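Lecture 7 notes: from sequence to structure.
We start with the chain below.
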Amino acid sequence: MAKIELTRNPFIKNAIKSRYPQLAVFIVMLVGYIFAILAGLIGTPVGSHNFSIVFVWIAWWAVLILVAVPFFGRGWCAVCPIPLPGEWLQRGAVLSPPEKRPKWLNLRVPKMFRNIWLQNISFLLLALFSSVLLTTPNITGIVLAVMLFAAIGLSTIFERRAFCRYLCPVGGFIGLYSQTAPIELRIKDKQVCVKCEGKPCYNGSAAGYGCPWDVFPGGLTKNTYCGLCMECIRTCPHDNIAINLRPFSADLAKPSTRMDEAFKAFIMLGSAMIYAGVLLGPWGTLKDAAYGVGTGAWFIYAVVFLAIIFGILPGFFSLGLLKTKSNLPFKQRFASLSTALIPLGLMFWVAFSLSFVLTNASYILAALSDPLGLGWNLFGTANFAWQPMLTTILAPAQTLALVVGLIWSARTAQKSASEAGVSPLPIIFYSFVATSTMLWLLL
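Predicted structure tokens for the same chain:
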């Protein structure tokens, strides 16, 4: 499939270049986000009847995992409300760039933090406390508020979107899996970028802001660090930047060599498997340990959780690599071949989310009518009874997702192994064992 330039369409191009459609979505999202914080803090403590739990961890999560990330990559980041107040404060403007730059520190993020290790850590912290986070409204409200104020604070200290680029726990896994999506932002002609004076797409101009994600579009080869904010399209004086429709997983043809990205793949793969066991499995002792935050059992659970992600999963993966001969250093082989686990992990999350979302989706109608649990019935659905949805197709859909992930991973392994000059068989076998384990956990 050849790439199709979506921005050739005048309607799409004008909608992207104009700031008003994006601003309208931003405002709706920001209002909803602030309401979710308030609902978590002052609404009912019953999670299944609180807007913050139902709309963040069921409705939003379903849209993110089942639609936004697989099909639009960084599309959520294009409308995410979290960085908005900080970015408006940093810029001193809501729409067009102001004549004078606001006087904030505007520091460069230290080089040692210009990676996704902090994102890995922040995701793991949420994952370890996920049992209470997914069921306790005030905890969800506090976490949402902390993320908002962290983004504001970092915007007053560092340049651009430091929170999104280096700390956001959601941005890390969106960036990882955005490589599989069929939407990309890329330049049309490299020579045009080479000759362009001032590089307004990166540095900004009167037409718009410099790239908030600290990315030069002329060197962009992967979706991982492009947040689809569209500023570069607005500032490019040569109309040399486009939004393209492309084949799925196009970025995976260029394997990563970074260890922070490699371990993100293991973090996401392991977390999906552990979530399936804790939230969907029949093991009461495991559930009690995960929910008993601060107890001795929970600390054992946390140690096992981290051991699986940083020890067992990468350890068995490494054993397969040790049996292969290659001229590449081990770290480079490890990082490169871990690319094969990206589509597998994405399908693990899809399979898990299908069960979690379809089991709990009926809560959405009740929470919509009574978002704070105060006895309201705004739309006449407050008393809608809980019932799981589409139960007859759930198991086949999950199995299909896992099989697709395994085949997708095997094909990616073949490409990555060819680049590294090794056999893909150990990686394919590893993926098969992981898929079989996930299938057992789900079914």
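Points to note: Residues 326 and 410 are 19 Å apart (CA to CA). The first strand starts at residue 4 and ends at 5.
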